[in-house]
Amino acid sequence: MPAPLAHDLLRDTTRFLLRQDSVEALCQAGLAFLAGQLDATLALLHLRESDVTYRLRSHVGEHPLLAVHELQVMEASWEAQLQAGAWISTPVPAPSWTGPAERNYARLGARHLVNFGLYSGPRLIGTVNLLFDCERPELSDLDVLGTVGALWGTLISRMQAQQEVAAREAMLRVVTEQGSHLLSVIDDQGVITYQSSASDELLGYPAEFMLGRPYDGAIHRADRPAVSEALAQLRREPGGSVTLPLRVRHAQGRLVWLEVNARNLLHEPAVRGIVIHLRDVTDAHATQRHLERRVQDLTLMHDTGRQLQLSRSVVDVASGLVQLIQERLGHPYVQVGRVLPDGSVQAVARAGGAAPSSALPPGRGLIGACVSSGVTLCVPDVRLDPRYVARHPEVRSEVTLPIRINGALWGVLNVESPQVAAFDASDVRALETVVSQAGAALGNVTLLDDLRRSRDELRAAYNETLEGWARALDLRDRETEGHSQRVTGLTVALARRLGMAEEELVHLYRGALLHDIGKVGIPDAILHKPGPLTEEEWQVMRLHPRMAYDVLRPIAFLRPALDVPYAHHEHWDGGGYPRGLSGEQIPLAARIFSVVDVWDALRSDRPYRAAWTEGQAREHLLAQSGRQFDPQVVRAFLGLLDELGDAAQEWP
């Protein structure tokens, strides 16, 4: 499954589970939601009943044989496979299946199985099996299910514990009217007419102090509109009830989260009011926020690993890291900086404004302090830290972390927030994991850069050597001095015009430089003869393409360049040498080069004749089109000459 879809599955499933308010909803609705997301035909959720038995708690879909799976006996080997965070995706029937035949999911019509455990801490409390009636190979990359299983199991365990606590609290309320829950009654105007003794503990105000006051005096201003609307609706429903969360300001200044259950008994003569039961859920709300932030951290780490694996440069890694932190954690100011040799820090990627053109001087600001110490710095309020260098006036807290490659300091990650104490220990641990992943990715791309640089340097050395060989050949054959450099440039330009791939142009370039390498084996008496060659001398001269083949063939990196030295004297009509190839039997590189080679020879002075005019040379190429030369190559070359104009005479 592609990384964006896996991330969406993790996000959407997490949000859905966190909205459920009972164990039954977590089991049934949660299973139905996940089955719907993955298009499962049948889904089963079992919860632990004893040390070895798991009972079917909910299922999606029906099958006549489903009752066989009502109770599962978990073998030790099966439980060992379901380690925390692990999951299974396998065809059905699985090749490794060793259980009883009647329990094989193939009997339920399954062709593919996805299975993962529900964990509360290290304890396996249940399993989820998603069955599909067709093969689903695309589900082979769903490691987010490990995170889903950990959250799901934790929520179920916590809600089971909360239900047990609620049951005990109900029993205690029957025994005594005293307790930690607050009971209030308000009249039709919203004035408090009764307040239980828990008011002092829950709100910090004695019950007597609250009587006769408006009910919303201590409610957080952000929650007042929703509470007012809910109570207005409740007043119109005699006997109706409503449940909602809200925040109140304790007398000591702290915020308290309350779960409010209100019932309209205004019509009851004995009450004449709205009865409100308030329960402190601050700890539970903090736990839920902790779970949400933990999922947020896990999502960030998961996405960081995935995205940074695809990066191919230092800027890719830095920009990807900045974008992920800004999107996943919501902090507006994020920067990745590289430590320069003098200890200054230059921004590589940055969110919340353009990167500065100059580097931050050594030791300056919290970034400089992090570079100097080599350890993470987390400052709850930067206005109280004299080291802080302000860039944005609204920033209040900052965390700066060193980024290392193979243990050596490479740079820093700097995250700033407009909130005081925006980063806790969990945030810092998550970011330290992220910068560790970034350091590994930076190490990989740095190694790739070094390899590319070495490759380019080696390629340049090869080409310089070949150019030296070509100059030496031209110097030996005094009639053609500078010929190799001229024809090489024109040949590459013509090949590019004909659509030859860039990687093939490298070999064409080398072959053109060395097209006459075979002449090193031709005696000077023949090579430098001022007059016409005899037939015997021509037989020797025609050996130079074969000599070029013998010279270059043993050199591995020059083997792809052999087409030009070996075949540039072949003719389109088959009348050339050394092999008598014709038409498209002749390699394209050789067909291209042969036209440029003859053009340059005709346009150059020789001891036995003056250079031809451009018109004479064009007429010769046209006359030999279809005989010595490929007609398509001749047309393309003449078009190239028209484009170059006078510049063609000075090429390259």
Notable characteristics:
single chain; five-stranded antiparallel beta sheet; 20 helices; 18% strand; alpha+beta; six-stranded antiparallel beta sheet; 652 residues
Describe this structure in words.
The chain has 652 residues and is of the alpha+beta class. 44% of the residues lie in helices and 18% in strands. The chain contains 20 helices and 16 strands. It has a 6-stranded antiparallel β-sheet with strand order 3-2-1-6-5-4. A hairpin with a 7-residue loop joins strand 10 (255-265) and strand 11. Helix 1 runs antiparallel to helix 2, helix 1 runs antiparallel to helix 8 (282-309) and helix 8 packs antiparallel against helix 9 (314-329). The longest helix is centred in the C-terminal third of the chain and has 52 residues, at 425-476. The chain is elongated and about 135 Å long. The two termini are 52 Å apart.
Helix content: 40-55%
What is the mean pLDDT? 81
- Calculate the terminal CA-CA distance, rounded to whole Å: 52 Å
So how many helices?
A: 20
SSE layout:
Elements (H helix, E strand, L loop, with lengths): L2 H17 L3 H16 L3 E7 L4 E8 L10 E3 L2 H6 L5 E5 L20 E9 L2 E10 L11 H32 L6 E5 L5 E4 L3 H5 L3 H4 L13 H12 L5 E9 L5 E11 L7 E8 L1 H28 L4 H16 L3 E7 L5 E7 L13 H9 L3 E3 L17 E9 L2 E10 L7 H52 L6 H15 L4 H12 L10 H4 L7 H7 L2 H9 L10 H5 L20 H15 L11 H11 L6 H14 L8
Antiparallel strand pairs: 1-2, 1-6, 2-3, 4-5, 5-6, 7-8, 7-11, 9-10, 10-11, 12-13, 12-16, 14-15, 15-16
Helix pairs in contact: 1-2, 1-4, 1-8, 8-9, 8-11, 9-11, 12-13, 12-18
